[in-house]
Amino acid sequence: MTDTTDLRWQESSALDPAVVRGAWRAAEPLHGLIYFAPEAHQRYAALGIDRRAGYFASRAAAMGPVGPGPVVAGFFNFNPDLVARALPAVWEQVTPAAVLAARLEAAGAALRHALGETVHSPQMREAAETARRAAEAATAHPEGRPLFAAHATLPWPDEPHLVLWHAQTLLREFRGDGHVAALVIAGLTGLEALILHAASGEVPVDFLRRSRGWSDDQWQQTTDRLRERGLITGDVPALTDSGRAQRVWIEATTDRLATPAYEVLGADGCARLAELTRPMSRAVVAAGALNIDNAAGRDQPADPG
Question: Does the pLDDT value for residue 32 go beyond 70?
Answer without folding.
Answer: yes
